[in-house]
Write a structure and sequence with these properties.
43% of the residues lie in helices and 11% in strands. A hairpin with a 5-residue loop joins strand 2 and strand 3. The relative contact order is 0.13. It has 378 residues and is α/β, with parallel strands linked by helices. The protein binds iron/sulfur cluster (3 copies). One iron/sulfur cluster binds next to helix 4 and helix 7.
């Protein structure tokens, strides 16, 4: 990896806007996917072809995340987008993108992956009600990233998944924009070929030393979040670890499927839960009630969660967008993250870590069969 500085030396938000607009203007890419300030002050993902529009509103460190960048990228690059597109992704979005590439949901050939360090994000609703300015809020959080002592904006909280996010900096990306442990100016990292392309376009200069504090700051933040994660998992286990506890914790689920719709890893185009299989005749409900004495409505909420868990626990990357989408405020991401941690550790797999590591559920390993069945070689 080559370390360098952007040629624009403004504050990180302005410098990133100049850099991303420059990618379009210097024909490095045709379009850029990046969070951007919307009319009215909210933030949403946007795909820019116009560099001036991008320069006016892009915000890679937006303090909210309502829609997963990897899910958006899968829509853009499920087939070849036809033009080279830069995608600016947070670490959890980059990990989801890695899984989706391996699962055949993103064609990576025409994508320039740009990953950014992430301080954490607030829930959309609370942030909208706070009326805070997203650019000023992002600037404040960026200022805290030099030391890693990050606090959410006053009267707001980071999302539960961000409080326990052990990967605030991405290991993946053609280009990485670093802020943790840096001196307030953006540090850029790029692979040889991309670094040469950026220098030729006059967008960055390479040859710097990595910021000496960076690894220490990231390690300290990671340790804090691992502690918070272990505490959250312990509480969840004591409250929802049994079947009865689980049923109680999810008793208000209305099976609206929002958690599934907003999950980057739940990608099936045809889903059994949207099929007629779950549109029962009235007599079926009546029969269930007669047999059990009572039938909760809507039915099959537990089956929904169990099925989803079995389909994707090996690839859940802990972004928490399922929580964001849940109208009932249920701890969906804690359930998925906790289960994913056990499943991934059992399979010796870390979702989103590397493109070279095959997804376990779609990989046949003969020795696994032998271990499970006790069969011996002949
Ligand atoms: S889960 Fe991690 S990477 Fe994703 S928004 Fe939260 S802190 Fe950032
Ligand atoms: S289950 Fe939730 S935390 Fe896991 S990848 Fe899907 S949206 Fe993210
Ligand atoms: S979003 Fe919430 S209420 Fe809707 S199906 Fe998922 S857990 Fe249930």
């Amino acid at each position: 990896m080559n370390i360098g500085r952007l040629t624009s030396t403004s504050d990180p938000v302005t410098a990133s806007r100049e850099f991303l607009a420059g990618l379009i203007e210097k024909s490095v890419v045709k379009e850029v996917l990046v969070p951007a300030v919307q009319p009215g002050g909210s933030v949403a993902l946007a795909l820019f072809a116009d560099s001036e529009e991008l320069r006016a509103s892009a915000l890679p460190w937006a303090p909210v995340m309502g829609f997963q960048g990897a899910r958006a990228l899968s829509r853009i690059a499920f087939t070849d987008p036809g033009v080279r597109v830069a995608a600016v992704l947070r670490p959890c979005e980059a990990r989801a993108a890695v899984e989706l590439v391996k699962l055949g949901q993103i064609k990576p050939e025409n994508i320039l992956f740009i990953t950014v360090d992430c301080p954490g994000t607030c829930e959309l609703k609370g942030f909208a009600e706070s009326k805070l300015d997203p650019v000023k809020t992002a600037a404040k959080l960026i200022g805290q990233m030099a030391s890693g002592a990050i606090v959410p904006p006053a009267e707001l909280h980071f999302r539960s998944s961000c409080n326990i996010c052990e990967n605030p900096s991405a290991k993946f990306g053609d280009i990485r924009l670093n802020l943790f442990g840096c001196d307030g100016a953006l540090e850029i990292e790029a692979e040889d070929k991309v670094a040469a392309e950026l220098e030729k376009a006059g967008l960055a200069v390479f040859g710097s030393e990595p910021s000496p504090e960076r690894e220490k700051v990231i390690a300290e933040l990671r340790a804090l979040r691992e502690k918070a994660r272990d505490e959250l998992f312990k509480t969840f286990e004591s409250e929802a670890g049994s079947l009865e506890g689980f049923k109680k914790a999810f008793s208000t689920c209305i099976r609206c499927l929002n958690c599934m719709e907003n999950c980057p890893i739940c990608y099936c185009k045809v889903c059994i839960f949207k099929s007629s299989l779950f549109e029962h005749e009235g007599s079926r409900y009546a029969g269930w009630a007669a047999r059990k004495g009572v039938q909760k409505m809507p039915s099959e909420t537990m089956l929904f969660h169990m099925t989803r868990l079995s389909h994707m626990a090996s690839s859940c990357i802990g972004c928490g967008l399922c929580d964001t989408a849940c109208p009932m405020g249920l701890p969906v991401s804690t359930l998925f993250r906790k289960t994913a941690a056990s499943v991934q550790s059992m399979l010796g797999y870390e979702a989103g870590k590397s493109l070279d590591e095959p997804v376990p559920v779609s990989t046949f390993r003969e020795d696994e069969l032998r271990t499970e069945s006790g069969a011996k070689d002949h």
